[in-house]
Amino acid sequence: MRMAAPAPGQKIKVGVLGATGSVGQRFMQLLNGHPWFDVVALGASPRSAGKTYEDAVNWKQSVPIPPAMAPLVVSECKPDAPVFKDVKIVFSGLDANFAGEVEEAFAKADVAVFSNAKNHRYDSDVPILIPPVNLDHLDIIPAQRKARGYDKGFIITNANCSTTAMAIGIKPLAAKFGIETIMVTTMQAISGAGYPGLSGMDVLDNVVPYIGGEEVKMETESRKILGTVQNSVFVDADVNVAAMCNRVNVLDGHLECLSIKLANKATAEEVIDCIKTYPSITKDLGLPSAPDHDVVYNPSHDRPQPRMDRMVGDGYTVTVGRVRDCNVFDIRMVVFGHNTIVGAAGGSLLNAELCVVRDLIN
Ligand SMILES: NC(=O)c1ccc[n+]([C@@H]2O[C@H](COP(=O)([O-])OP(=O)(O)OC[C@H]3O[C@@H](n4cnc5c(N)ncnc54)[C@H](OP(=O)(O)O)[C@@H]3O)[C@@H](O)[C@H]2O)c1
Q1: Which domain holds residue 104?
Q2: What EC designation does it have (predicted)?
Q3: Is there a single domain that holds both residue 151 and residue 287?
Q4: Which of 145, 123, 104, 116 is nearest to 16 (CA)?
């Protein structure tokens, strides 16, 4: 069901938790001038609380701090803080050491929470929502509210950034042919580690073949995301994923090389065709941040590439390329997505816009 968007002049008041961090800064950039959402409250650590945003943040985006946001005073992340009084949505870019309890407190206080942290991703009543992949997982929200005693609040998480790109890239294949097994090797940008992240001594002229916890996240989250909701219970997809994750000397955007065993055999041409004809789900839903296409196929022999493709669809589109037969499984291909836009803040924004359209923000 498609609901009316908030009328002009009646934007929904929102807050950003972890507003000073890498993901938080991206939220501030993407929420600037948003047609439905008005940023009125910012939260971060006690180190930042009490300062104006421009004094608290070590701004690292390539555009200036939005002028209307610079003078906002950062608060501690407490739902009873006065700045959060009329807030109906919070976007969370909180450090995972603190996100879990803080996000629960906001949900309990009637706030819809859209989280980027890992803390609640594996809860049995919390969706890992990616609208082009599994928007039916929203069906769990009434059960979550009931089980946790939330009235108007709830918690929705994003996937880990590398999992998001992979899930959007493989969804057309999963829907049409079914997927049994994926071997994936990632080349992940340094912004995925937050700021300051890795030292220059570690990452310049180098590749680090280890990202703590990342491989298990890709292997676990993709099963939940590609699964179904049956009688208010998540049923994991029967797909085997083996991930090998590497940090490379790239600023933004994760590149992933996949070898895929399909449930029903298909040629490379058939796979390309199913990607090219996959519907533009977020645009069809009328979400204001939606790109023209959630996933595109790039036919060039040497694409996607981070520098060339990170801003396709303003960073909301996942690009697939190099689709070809595989000597071991069925299909090989390369998937690329912007880790802090579609893989983090932008993904949360689409989730919140979807919840507005579905009349879940009350
Ligand atoms: N970077 C990515 O590409 C990416 C992608 C997907 C998901 N994520 C996840 O998103 C979350 C944020 O990542 P990030 O890279 O943005 O991290 P980050 O740059 O380190 O930012 C962390 C934020 O948490 C705040 N914080 C720290 N301690 C706090 C406390 N005690 N109470 C309240 N707030 C506190 C920080 O505020 P101060 O500035 O005041 O310290 C800062 O705003 C993490 O859970 C991460 O795993 C990141």
Answers
A1: 12-159+345-357
A2: 1.2.1.11
A3: no
A4: 116
CA 140, CA 156: separation in Å to the nearest integer? 10
Asked whether residue 149 falls in the same domain as residue 183, the answer is no
**Looking at this protein, which amino acid is placed at residue 61?**
Q
User: Is the Cβ atom of 339 under 6 angstroms away from ligand 1?
Assistant: yes
Asked whether residue 153 falls in the same domain as residue 180, the answer is: no
Known active-site residue 137: no
Whether residues 329 and 189 fall in one domain: yes
Q: Are 333 and 271 in contact (CB under 8 A)?
A: yes
- Pair 67, 182 in one domain: no
Domain count, the chain: 2
Q: Examine the pLDDT at 195 and tell me if it is beyond 90.
A: no
Alpha helices in 226-313 (DSSP H): 268-276, 281-284, 306-309
79 bridge partner residues: none
Assess whether pLDDT exceeds 60 at residue 2. no
- 52 Cβ contact list (under 8 Å, min separation 6): 70, 71, 72, 73, 74
The residues, ordered by sequence, that sit 6+ positions from 194 with a Cβ below 8 Å of its Cβ are 21, 22, 23
**Pairing mode, if any, of strands 12-17 and 37-44?**
parallel
Instruction: State pLDDT tens for residues 137-178.
Output: 999 999 999 999 999 999 999 999 999 999 999 999 999 999
Q: Is the dihedral of CA 107, 111, 112, 117 positive or negative?
A: negative
Q: Is residue 271 part of a domain?
A: yes
Contact of 346 with 26, CB cutoff 8 Å: yes
Instruction: Spot the catalytic one: 120, 254, 293, 338.
Output: 254
Do 174 and 269 share a domain, yes or no?
yes
Identify whether residues 155 and 165 lie together within a single domain: no
45 and 124: one domain? yes
pLDDT at 215 over 80: yes
Q: How far apart are CA 208 and CA 189, in angstroms?
A: 11
CA of 22 to the centre of ligand 1 (A): 7
Distance 86 CA to ligand 1 centre (A): 24
CATH code for the domain of 289? 3.30.360.10
